[in-house]
Amino acid sequence: MTAVYPFSAIVGHDRLLLALLLCAVRPEIGGVLIRGEKGTAKSTAVRGLAQVLAQVDGGALVELPIGATEDRVVGSLDLQKVLRDGEHAFSPGLLARAHGGVLYVDEVNLLHDHLVDVLLDAAAMGRVHVERDGISHSHEARFVLIGTMNPEEGELRPQLLDRFGLTVDVAASRDVDVRVEVIRHRMAFEADPAGFAERYASKDSELAARVTRARALVDSVALPDNELRRIAALCAAFDVDGMRADLVVARTAVAHAAWRGARTVSEDDIRVAAELALPHRRRRDPFDDPGLDQERLDEAMAQAGESADVPEPGPEPDPDPDRPPGGGATSDSSGSAVPQRKSAPQNRSSGSPSPVFKTRTLVVPGVGEGAPGRRSRARNRTGTVVASTTDAETGHGLHVFGTLLAAAENQRVPGRPRPRAQDIRRAVREGHEGNLVVFVVDASGSMAARDRMAAVSGATLSLLRDAYQRRDKVAVVTFRQRQATLLLPPTTSVYIASRRLARFDTGGKTPLAEGLLAARDVVVREKARDRARRCLVVVLTDGRATGGPDPLGRTRQAAARLVAEGAAAVVVDCETSLVRLGLAEELATALRGPAVRLAHLRADDLTRLVTQTDRTAA
């Protein structure tokens, strides 16, 4: 058996280890979302925790693949038994296998929203209820839900972020001593995995024993009224939506007290819980900076203490003096984890204010087959059932009625139809897909000189927000002087896109042809990577092509090459002169797409524009 890197040997991620252990003590917290760049031991920590919990209750580590269907996750009708034996049987899914262990979802931000909902519901309730395909089934599913993600590949929706109990941001340490220790540990493990694991076996066993003791104690931990008021006041101070944050902070504080071996929740328990449960619930907008301002937390804790209105009890002594892993924490005399202060995160530079546009979606004409999203029409595994098919690749899920009809038509003896394998019909579903939206932004001197960049930036950010809500990938190309620059390769992280757009150079001539060719290159690369994802190119320009020989002719040629790749296009006309040249409209004609004026980039106009686009495509 391959040795697993020991949980207790992980260096430099105390906050992460603490969050995982608290969810192991009390899974009702709702799981942990681990956010961080690649190479930060996210998966290593998850697999190490599973080894620890295997000593507690024998649970296994179950990994959920990104491409999993809902049938595989929750279970469904056992079709083989139905067709072969006529037996109405239920086939359990991955949630049943995860009972008592760890359910791990790598790149959870790439998982479809409806599946994330299913996982979070099961993690919160500890049970799975299945009502589908004519079956009704319920079973226990108590597991520690852990999701990992790289923010550069896109964010989870706010409503899904809120469903995760705790969130930890991890990054490689900048402390040289810590990095040296990480390297030393890893190389020692690679040289002798079994021997290295054996050296940390006793420490992992101690953690397993401590989890067991904390689980036995957690139900008897008292949460005094004054501390309950502190929690309510703290969540109110941070203006979080709903009551889920209050409940998660309370459950986490109780779990932390039990982890310390205390029988009463203290202020320090609540602070630790707040640092793990509140940061991701404060992001109301995809452009908001992540994290929790420590100075703001200090102020809120002080104000919450005043609201408690009851004398605060002192912390109880910790019967176990061994310091547990704690998130960036030191230990006070009681052994409770006291978070160290860190500098508040820096906000994105604002510059001059940009107007905000309330946009409606631009769409790619026709019906695609791309990944589920909320922009253009598509046939995929989500959406409404519109037909049945025998093609397993085209259909998604069992079409029960179509299967029974086929069996009835093919039966040889009158009576109850007995479906055979060849009678199976799949459901054809029509919903919506996410597209690749390539923003091509004119950053030339004609745009900057007329003070239009603020309006263009505002429009682009509004369209980026729309792309975020519709599950799109986005890319940003700017062009100025003699060249175009790929400011942002295709990504689903509009937060990163907004930061890139906040800082780019302007001025010079207008190499419009280079901008279109750069967009074409992005489209070609994306088609090679994902042929089902269709592309929408949004060009924000006044259409004044300058620089080089025959700039207008080169622009028409570049537009023709982009059209040849099958990309849909929309031109946002940024011209503001009293005497209009209509160059942007000519560009839209060359791109075989509509044009909309920058000042009209609002809901009503885009609704009309989309209707016209669909009618033209039809």
Automatic annotation (TrEMBL):
Region (Disordered): 303-389
Residue spans of biased composition, Polar residues class: 343-353
GO molecular function, one term: ATP hydrolysis activity
Domain VWFA: residue ranges: 436-616
Gene3D superfamilies hit by this protein: Magnesium chelatase subunit I, C-Terminal domain (1.10.8.80), P-loop containing nucleotide triphosphate hydrolases (3.40.50.300), von Willebrand factor, type A domain (3.40.50.410)
Family as reported in the entry's similarity comment: Belongs to the Mg-chelatase subunits D/I family.
Protein name: VWFA domain-containing protein
